[in-house]
Amino acid sequence: MSIYQKLFDITHSVKRIEQDQTKNIPYKITSWNKVNEAIREELKNKNLLLLPRVLEHSKEGNLTVVKMSCDIKDLESNESITIGDYYGYGVDNSDKGVGKATTYAYKYLIMKLFMLEVGEAEDSEFSNPPVQNKSLGRKETIMEREEDI
């Protein structure tokens, strides 16, 4: 079985992830532990190894940004592929920004690779926070920007 067939099989056998409610946050989150739990056994059964790599990172103030890719290695055939790039953002006033950003990027890399279904709906489908558009000098919502396209 090729590496692509194995990835296809995993994609169509993983279960939906239930989001967690956390203290002091008014919305549910998709935790790393839930994502890992959803794919770990499937990867083992298919003899696939994921090797995440941080390609770039930067820090400005308390915001850390990382760009990651991931090598997927088939331990039976020695075939491998690389997927990426995925970005992660971590906000921390101490030394945990890189860890937060890396976890975020890797979690979303896995979620998108295996098309993991989470919660009731993807966050981006229902929330349109205002973004600052410096060229217009005002805040606008994502929906306003999409209407202009």
Describe the structure.
With 149 residues, the protein is of the alpha+beta class. The chain has two domains: 3-118, no CATH class; 122-149, no CATH class. It has helices at residues 3-11, 32-45, 97-113, 123-126, 142-148; strands spanning 20-21, 28-29, 48-60, 63-74, 80-91, 131-133, 138-140. The relative contact order is 0.16.
Q: Got a strand count?
A: 7
Distance N terminus to C terminus? Answer: 43 Å
Total number of distinct structural domains:
2
**What global shape is seen?**
flat
What value does the average pLDDT take?
A: 83
Short description:
The chain is an alpha+beta fold and 149 residues long. It has five helices and seven strands; from the N terminus they run H-E-E-H-E-E-E-H-H-E-E-H.
Task: Give me the secondary-structure topology.
Elements: H1 3-11, E1 20-21, E2 28-29, H2 32-45, E3 48-60, E4 63-74, E5 80-91, H3 97-113, H4 123-126, E6 131-133, E7 138-140, H5 142-148
Antiparallel strand pairs: 1-2, 3-4, 4-5, 6-7
Write out key terms for the chains shown.
disordered C terminus, 149 residues, 3-stranded antiparallel beta sheet
